[in-house]
């Protein structure tokens, strides 16, 4: 397999494309580690760049980016492909010299990504060790001298005195050559990464300090991890899965290496794997779910001058987003365009957005997508919009009520699998379609959603595409309770939603148990920043639209909430938010959340200065109902980002665990200025596994930064 990949990805001359006018030739090559892609300019000079296969999310073949579509007349689709990076990093659009060469690169890259995804914990560790060896081996002679080791320690965030470093180096140098070769470096790395914190736990349950018998492991799982599944087969399965020693396996035992592998795996992580797949009831009305939602999805940057791009839709949908937004305006040649009106943001065609929906709507989730339309088009171009929706989406576009009956409540995500719903203004209502009171006008007038109550001409063709999500202006909760229909959707800016929450919180929750509500960022957020979505979820608002292009706390919470239930974009609201008239008491404490932050592992450097070492601290934040909002911090550890140890205990009283989110933030302490962000991880409290757990950190961009992690002990004590 390796030889096949190597042959297909030998050094090749590819054209890197940024626009119709920016096309440059670059040499690309797969490095010997089968993990690194090297590339450099065709021009003379030694400067080159690299990226890791682990940075890649997918390979798209053909003209599947705006850049490659713009040069489709110059380069055929079978020579083009796009490298899609994780997080918010820009894509890399490439053109090969022939269709065969393009296919070789596409197949080779996809195989490498697949291999990486299928790697076991042991292989990942070996890969990681190999990466460090190559970084440290400056002169590429396959060996490391002591000076290279010292440089490596700085790269790895380790502040170690020269005497101790030299002692480890000498112990690892079995050949006494003054150099470390492959196996010797592995030994050096293991001594460097010795986990005293985990060893302490291991030895507490091991009779001889060398191994855990199956019965010892069962005791650990029962007493510490509070596992509630059938213990004997579970312990046996863990030994089979994580124990590297065949001898230990024959004894039904687990060595320290196996124990460490288990604790570093998905099963040993803080997120309960039981809640990774779709596990919730998906047959309730749409208004009973929180829905992952994007604001001004077409924007890649800010709200005033940023680039508009179809890529915004592809990225949001690929992250499980289920409600995307378009602002439509009249364009040239009778073609509607999408951009942030009355600003300098660039423009894209409405039909290109619809094509992206057709291609990407259901790649990561089969549950329905809501297309929220802000319509500024003339009746003529609205007709064109309706044509594009019908022609491109075909049966995926929901055009009528399910089973053709007059409905009394919203259908469920299960009922609407594979369907795209339009949220927009509509002439008349659903009932009139069934009792025959609507005539057949070509267009009609509807009141605007904003404060002015102006009217807008609406084409019947576009109006007919709206079924279960009719955009309406909100008056007040009393009016809604008496007059509003279940298929009507009100939209609020964050400030208006906060006002309703402040003045009529309970009524807001009840309103959201009957129909959908959309909340979007204030127009003052021209930098595309986000509000905290938690306060809107606290009110039961389903469509809390965020700027997906902007990293930070808002998107961390969104990713955290929707990381459960198969990342399908729908999360069932707590029962007290679904049942009209139900009450819940946010004043009564429900449980105590006790978290012992034990240690950190291989935290990334945040300061580019070579001599700079991280001074890490951990902040744990609870986001939830107002009484649960809390933050606590550990001490900071001076000059140790490699293996800091805290053993600090933090306690939180939780009143409404069903709505609580836990966010772990690691920062580099600075006494003279704001702390630097190092990494974070966010998850719902309901998904937390108790016991000794690793927390695998994410970058600011929302991508994993292996093997950076925290090691913690968790206890959640119910209060009577």
Automatic annotation (TrEMBL):
One of its GO terms (biological process) is intracellular signal transduction. Residues 124-159, 160-195 form the EF-hand domain. Residues 574-699 form the C2 domain. It catalyses: a 1,2-diacyl-sn-glycero-3-phospho-(1D-myo-inositol) + H2O = 1D-myo-inositol 1-phosphate + a 1,2-diacyl-sn-glycerol + H(+); a 1,2-diacyl-sn-glycero-3-phospho-(1D-myo-inositol-4,5-bisphosphate) + H2O = 1D-myo-inositol 1,4,5-trisphosphate + a 1,2-diacyl-sn-glycerol + H(+). It is a peripheral membrane protein. Its EC number is 3.1.4.11. Residues 462-578 form the PI-PLC Y-box domain. It is found in: Cytoplasm; Endoplasmic reticulum; Membrane; Nucleus. GO terms for cellular component: endoplasmic reticulum; nucleus; plasma membrane. InterPro entries: C2_dom, C2_domain_sf, EF-hand-dom_pair, EF_Hand_1_Ca_BS, EF_hand_dom, PH-like_dom_sf, PH_domain, PI-PLC_fam. One of its GO terms (molecular function) is phosphatidylinositol-4,5-bisphosphate phospholipase C activity. Its cofactor is Ca(2+). PANTHER family: 1-PHOSPHATIDYLINOSITOL 4,5-BISPHOSPHATE PHOSPHODIESTERASE DELTA-4, PHOSPHOINOSITIDE-SPECIFIC PHOSPHOLIPASE C FAMILY PROTEIN. Residues 7-114 form the PH domain. This is Phosphoinositide phospholipase C. It comes from the Eukaryota.
């Amino acid at each position: 397999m390796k030889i096949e990949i190597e042959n297909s990805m030998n050094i090749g001359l590819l054209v890197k494309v940024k626009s119709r006018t920016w096309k440059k030739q670059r040499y690309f090559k797969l490095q010997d580690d089968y993990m690194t892609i090297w590339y450099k300019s065709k021009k003379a000079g030694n400067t080159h760049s690299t990226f890791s296969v682990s940075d890649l999310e997918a390979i798209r073949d053909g003209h599947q980016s705006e850049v490659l579509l713009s040069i489709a007349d110059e380069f055929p689709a079978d020579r083009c492909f796009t490298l899609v990076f994780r997080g918010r990093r820009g894509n890399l659009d490439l053109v090969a010299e022939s269709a065969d060469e393009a296919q070789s690169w596409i197949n080779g890259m996809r195989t490498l990504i697949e291999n990486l995804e299928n790697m076991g914990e042991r292989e990942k560790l070996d890969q990681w060790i190999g990466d460090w060896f190559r970084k440290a081996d400056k002169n590429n002679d396959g060996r490391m001298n002591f000076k290279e080791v010292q440089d490596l320690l700085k790269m790895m965030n380790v502040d170690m005195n020269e005497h101790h470093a030299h002692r480890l180096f000498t112990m690892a140098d079995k050949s006494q050559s003054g150099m470390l070769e492959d196996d010797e470096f592995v030994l050096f790395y293991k001594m460097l990464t010795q986990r005293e914190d985990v060893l302490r736990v291991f030895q507490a349950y091991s009779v001889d300090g060398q191994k855990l018998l199956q019965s010892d492991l069962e005791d650990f799982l029962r007493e510490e991890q509070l596992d509630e599944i059938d213990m004997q087969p579970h312990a046996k399965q863990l030994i089979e899965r994580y124990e590297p020693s065949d001898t230990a396996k024959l004894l039904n035992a687990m060595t320290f290496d196996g124990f460490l592998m288990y604790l570093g795996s998905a099963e040993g992580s803080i997120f309960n794997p039981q809640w990774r797949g779709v596990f919730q009831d998906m047959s309730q009305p749409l208004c009973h779910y929180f829905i992952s939602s994007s604001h001004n999805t077409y924007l890649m940057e800010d709200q005033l001058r940023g680039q508009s791009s179809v890529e915004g839709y592809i990225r949001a949908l690929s992250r499980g987003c289920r409600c995307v937004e378009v602002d439509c305006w009249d364009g040239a040649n009778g073609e509607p365009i999408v951009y942030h009106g009355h600003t300098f943001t660039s423009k894209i065609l409405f039909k290109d957005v619809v094509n992206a929906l057709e291609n990407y709507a259901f790649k990561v989730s089969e549950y329905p997508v809501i297309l929220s339309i802000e319509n500024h088009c003339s009746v003529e171009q609205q007709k064109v919009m309706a044509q594009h929706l019908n022609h491109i989406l075909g049966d995926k576009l929901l055009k009528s009520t399910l089973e053709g009956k007059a409905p009394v409540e919203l259908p469920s995500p299960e009922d609407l699998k594979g369907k795209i719903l339009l949220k927009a203004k509509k002439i008349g209502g659903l009932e009139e379609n069934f009792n025959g009171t609507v005539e057949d006008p070509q267009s009609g007038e509807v009141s605007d959603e904003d404060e002015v109550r102006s009217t807008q001409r609406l084409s019947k063709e576009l109006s007919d595409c709206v079924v279960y999500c009719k955009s309406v202006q909100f008056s007040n909760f009393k009016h809604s309770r008496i007059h509003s229909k279940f298929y009507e959707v009100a939209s609020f800016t964050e400030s208006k939603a906060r006002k309703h929450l402040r003045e009529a919180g309970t009524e807001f929750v009840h309103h959201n148990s009957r129909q959908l509500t959309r909340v979007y960022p204030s127009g003052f957020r021209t930098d595309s920043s986000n509000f905290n979505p938690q306060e809107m979820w606290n009110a039961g608002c389903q469509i809390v639209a965020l700027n997906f292009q902007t990293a930070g706390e808002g998107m961390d919470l969104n990713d955290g909430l929707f990381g459960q239930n198969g990342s399908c974009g729908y999360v069932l609201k707590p029962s007290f938010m679904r049942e009209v008239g139900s009450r819940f008491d946010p004043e009564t404490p429900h449980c105590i959340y006790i978290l012992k932050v034990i240690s950190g592992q291989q935290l990334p450097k945040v300061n580019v200065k070579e001599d700079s070492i991280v001074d890490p601290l951990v902040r744990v934040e609870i986001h939830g109902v107002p009484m649960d909002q809390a933050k606590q911090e550990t001490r900071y550890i001076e000059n140790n980002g490699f293996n800091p140890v805290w053993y600090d205990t933090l306690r939180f009283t939780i009143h409404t665990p069903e709505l609580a989110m836990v966010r772990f933030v690691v920062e580099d302490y600075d006494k003279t200025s704001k702390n630097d962000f190092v990494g974070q991880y966010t998850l719902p409290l309901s998904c937390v596994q108790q016991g000794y757990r690793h927390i695998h950190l994410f970058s600011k961009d929302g991508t994993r930064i292996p093997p950076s992690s925290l090691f913690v002990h968790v206890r959640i004590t119910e209060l009577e």
